[in-house]
């Protein structure tokens, strides 16, 4: 299994609507990708490693798929629709990473 | 539920032993923290958002706990032992983040 992490840097003055992201954008991603998206998770940044230190990322999602190819086949045909929704919740540019899930949730 | 993400930047020339991290270090963290660590996951970086682009992080773990306080109480007494093991798998300094789990794995 692989995961695609989409991580929004926690920049001062930037806009990020956590409610829209959770309630509208991520369900749209799942609807568009169908079974290619096995499931997804969403995080809201609380802090960095030290108390009071800002979180590196204000919000993140992780999209879990059987393979990189499964992600590309599921996401590609809907990329324009999904990307077109981004301005509705943020003006940030995300950092993206594909990872192999070495240890998953038990 | 919260998660503590420990993310190792993918720097050229750095050392990261994925097998040791999976087989020795993360089980040590779980043993030391006991029930305070509900579970953990481990990722291995494959690529960035574009094919062939390097992954931002070579490896990551995510430690899931009931609360930030539960993490601190579980990790604090063992911090020296856990940190003392880091040199066995890497010479990298991790980026750390505490996040609220807004949407967890179904």
Keywords:
3 helices; 106 residues; globular; 34% strand; alpha+beta; 4 strands; homodimer; four-stranded antiparallel beta sheet
Characterise this structure.
The structure is a homodimer of 106-residue chains. With 106 residues, chain A is α+β, with helices and mostly antiparallel strands. Chain A has helices spanning 18-33, 68-75, 79-84; strands at 2-9, 39-48, 57-65, 95-103. Chain A has a four-stranded antiparallel β-sheet with strand order 2-3-1-4. In chain A, a hairpin with an 8-residue loop joins strand 2 (39-48) and strand 3. The mean pLDDT of chain A is 97. Chain A binds chain B through residues 2-3, 5, 7, 18, 22, 26, 39-49, 55-57, 60, 64, 68, 95-106, and chain B through 2-3, 5, 7, 18, 22, 26, 39-49, 55-57, 60, 64, 68, 95-106. Strand 4 (95-103) of chain A pairs antiparallel with strand 2 (39-48) of chain B.
Estimate the helix proportion of chain A, in percent: 25-40%
Average pLDDT for all residues of chain A: 97
Largest sheet of chain A, order of strands side by side?
2-3-1-4
Low-confidence stretches of chain A: none
Which series of helices and strands of chain A comes N to C?
EHEEHHE
Tell me which protein chains meet in the greatest interface and how many residues each side has. Answer: A-B, 36 and 36 residues
Gap between N and C termini of chain A: 14 Å
Approximate shape of chain A: globular
What's the multimeric state? Answer: homodimer
Radius of gyration of chain A: 14 Å
Q: Specify the number of helices of chain A.
A: 3
- Computed structural class of chain A: alpha+beta
Give the DSSP E fraction of chain A (strand runs of 2 or more residues). 25-35%
> How many E-type strands of chain A?
4
């Amino acid at each position: 299994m692989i995961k695609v992490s989409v991580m929004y840097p926690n920049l001062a003055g930037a806009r990020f609507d956590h409610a829209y992201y959770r309630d509208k954008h991520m369900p749209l991603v799942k609807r568009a990708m169908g079974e290619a998206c096995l499931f997804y998770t969403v995080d809201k940044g609380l802090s960095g490693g030290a108390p009071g230190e800002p979180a590196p990322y204000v919000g993140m999602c992780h999209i879990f798929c059987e393979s990189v190819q499964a992600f590309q086949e599921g996401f590609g045909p809907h990329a324009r629709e999904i990307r077109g929704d981004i301005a509705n919740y943020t003006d940030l540019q995300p950092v993206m990473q594909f990872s192999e899930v070495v240890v998953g949730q038990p």
